């Protein structure tokens, strides 16, 4: 996703003002408690068993989606069949892109007619993460050591090879940031996709990188934490605990990074510069995938234990539930089309792709 703007136009007056933080409320009091209990990484070299304040357990494992029961309600919207497990989805200029487990390809659907036969774009490896940057679909292929930019209209991929396994890609101006999971690093590419720096720190794994407001963060799912990325100094700095099982993240128009905590069932909101936990909102039911609709100011969170997706208005002091809709089984991935606000959900139980117009 492209970096959110740091200013926005008031719908009431038409004037433009700097990005404001959500208004005070009960959520701020929760946030104060969360901040006081969030542990900042000290960077000590002797941080081992019992000394690492961000390590949740002695032998950490990445959190995964809670298993889903059989669907009890008809999924909202339309469902397009898919012969396989959908691992991720994104949209770009009316095109719906889907990654399917075991395929070295991305499927491109017409978002307006998701049931029509998709186009298939062959790639050098299996895709594990999809995002949209500057109108292009970006597919990360860790096993191939590469990512690809795909023009949705032409369906032509531009493959960028890397010395590492990319888990997530983001843009910061004309620079591209790549999270290299196993290398525990973030690589910075210039406008010509040439590596200019590799940033390392106290990461256990670099599972995604996001640019929000005036800063960037890297998501470490093994450590279930987020770390500040200082591009000017070329360093990965302090880290903050992101619940007990951070699984997915996105950004909003207020410059925050929103993270889902699968183990505790929560939605977390972080400022990026400086790195601060601003909100923690309970989301029971197996919180997993997250996407953001900047037009409606709604964060969409999938609940895999309930086969539901919930939409929260995040403009206030605490998230306010606006939508709760039934989904396909095992709704692990979700995205929002920025032009139409359609919500797209991928089933990891071979039940297809769901398109909802809220």
From TrEMBL:
The family database entries (InterPro entries) matched by this protein are listed as:
WD40/YVTN_repeat-like_dom_sf (IPR015943)
Keyword annotations for this protein, in alphabetical order, are: Lipoprotein
Superkingdom of the organism of origin = Bacteria
Q: Give me the ranges of the annotated region Disordered.
A: 1-25
What residue ranges are annotated as transmembrane? none
Polar residues: which segments have biased composition? Answer: 1-17
Which Gene3D superfamilies would you find in this protein's record? YVTN repeat-like/Quinoprotein amine dehydrogenase
This protein is called Lipoprotein
List the top taxonomic levels of the source. Bacteria, Bacillati, Actinomycetota, Actinomycetes, Pseudonocardiales
């Amino acid at each position: 996703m492209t970096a959110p703007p740091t200013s926005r136009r008031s719908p009431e007056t038409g004037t433009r003002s700097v990005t404001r933080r959500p208004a005070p409320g009960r959520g701020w009091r929760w946030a104060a408690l969360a901040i006081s209990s969030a542990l900042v990484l000290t960077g000590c070299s002797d941080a081992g068993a019992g000394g690492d304040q961000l390590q949740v357990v002695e032998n950490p494992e990445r959190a995964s989606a809670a298993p889903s029961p059989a669907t009890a309600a008809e999924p909202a919207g339309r469902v397009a069949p898919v012969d396989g497990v959908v691992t991720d989805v994104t949209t770009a200029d009316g095109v719906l892109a889907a990654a399917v487990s075991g395929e070295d390809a991305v499927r491109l659907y017409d978002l307006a007619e998701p049931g029509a036969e998709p186009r298939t774009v062959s790639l050098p490896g299996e895709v594990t993460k999809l995002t949209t940057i500057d109108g292009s679909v970006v597919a990360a292929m860790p096993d191939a050591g590469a990512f690809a930019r795909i023009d949705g209209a032409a369906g032509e991929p531009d493959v960028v090879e890397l010395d590492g396994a990319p888990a997530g890609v983001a843009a910061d101006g004309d620079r591209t940031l790549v999270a290299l999971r196993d290398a525990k690093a973030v690589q910075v590419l210039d406008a010509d996709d040439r590596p200019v720096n590799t940033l390392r720190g106290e990461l256990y794994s670099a599972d995604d990188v996001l640019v929000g407001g005036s800063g960037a963060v890297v998501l470490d799912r093994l450590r279930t934490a987020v770390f500040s990325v200082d591009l000017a100094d070329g360093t990965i700095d302090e880290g903050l605990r992101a619940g007990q099982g951070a699984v997915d993240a996105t950004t909003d128009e207020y410059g925050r990074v929103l993270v889902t905590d699968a183990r505790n069932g929560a939605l977390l909101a972080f400022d990026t510069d400086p790195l601060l936990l601003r909100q923690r909102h309970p989301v029971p039911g197996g919180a997993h995938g997250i996407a953001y609709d900047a037009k409606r100011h709604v964060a969409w969170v999938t609940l895999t234990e309930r086969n539901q997706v919930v939409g929260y208005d995040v403009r206030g002091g605490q998230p306010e539930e606006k939508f709760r809709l039934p989904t396909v089984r095992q709704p692990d991935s979700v995205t929002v089309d920025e032009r139409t606000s359609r919500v797209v959900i991928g089933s990891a139980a071979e039940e297809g792709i769901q398109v909802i117009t809220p």
